[in-house]
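so my prof wants the structure for this chain in the tokens format not the other one, which i didnt know existed until like an hour ago. anyway here's the sequence
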Amino acid sequence: MRQYYWLSSSPLSSNPSLSSDSLSSDLSDAPICLEASTDASVDLENLRRQHQLILNAIGEGVYGVDLQGNATFVNPAGARMIGWEIHELIGKSMHDVLHHSKRDHTPYPKQTCPIYAAFKDGAVHRVTDEVFWRKDGTSFPVEYISTPMRDEQGKLIGAVVTFQDITQRKWAEAVLHRANEELELKVRERTAELYQANEQLKELSELRSRVVSMVCHEFRNPLNNILLSVSSLGRYDTHLSAEQKTNYLLGIEENVERMTQMIDAILVIGKVEAKRIEIQPSQVELVQFCRNLVSEMNYGSSGHQIEFICRNKAIPAKLDEKLLRSILTNILSNSVQYSPPQSSIQFRLSRQKQQVIFQVKDRGIGIPPEDQPYLFEPFHRGRNVSNIPGTGLGLNIVKRFVDLQQGTIEVESQLGVGTTFTVILDAERRSLAAPEVVE
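here's what i got, hopefully its the right format
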């Protein structure tokens, strides 16, 4: 509202000589129109109210400080976030109220505070990784901007601080960071698995190529022998005696048996490589098991004597009986095969804590030192085996079966003296599932 006041230089009654006409003439010639001071006050009040409404509506915390760092104003959102009433904060040091300590509770000196720096260096300071403290002593992560405040002459008179609680953002960032770490870990694990699988495929491919090459080589001799025997029987049938024919047929049978053994061994190796062997531990009384095995081996042996030695009356264990039988049968058969007739073979069984130890010692031809590093390679045979039949796959299968049960196998050998095989297995094995059992 505008109000107008008409003012004269003196009251009318003070000069009786003035007529009404002359007074009218004077008033019409020099009127004084003043806008009341209440007009500026109203505009200022409206502006103040607008500023107050803006501050009240802002969701972020806003407060102002003077050059001493004392609060000159605080908006409701800011006061609510730190748990104070507005009137309690006015005139207080805001650094002492909400910025006195760092996240780890160590003191935060005013000299290094970015809020104070704003009205000292006149620059805007933005901080995203600090905390403010509530009245109840708890803290929360904040992001704030400290902006210097100047008067009409450009003189620094304080600073305005705008801040927001970023707890939810920090929580979301932590969740995202954790999810990223888990994803990266899974990616690394999967990459390692794929790399391992790829390496296994390479090894399997190389093994298959090697096996195919070896199989072709190993099959050639028995096939040639069979072909020669069949050809001789066909060509000289009428000239051969019954005994000669029988020898040819026995030779064919031996070569077929040798090829069958190789095929069976190759199938077992393939199943091990494809992880299709199922470990099925069961309770086994090892002393009786070994006695029975020795009896079977001695019954079929041609003059060799296997001597079983064990100080225990009974040794209970939980092992895969089928795999154990294959391991011991292969080792004992080798000892018989590569030992002189009528020689003795020692088979010892013992238990130490949670392990069972099987040891087979012979007085055979021994293994050359240069062959020992390759003893468990498929189709590898010692250079001193001469015409002793064999596939070169038995010990490879033994090593694989021992590894499947997480055991160890050791060999000590001396040419012309003999060989000792030692197999060590855990007495208690857990079942390992797989899709197929070795037949």
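also thought this was worth mentioning. The chain has a mean pLDDT of 82.
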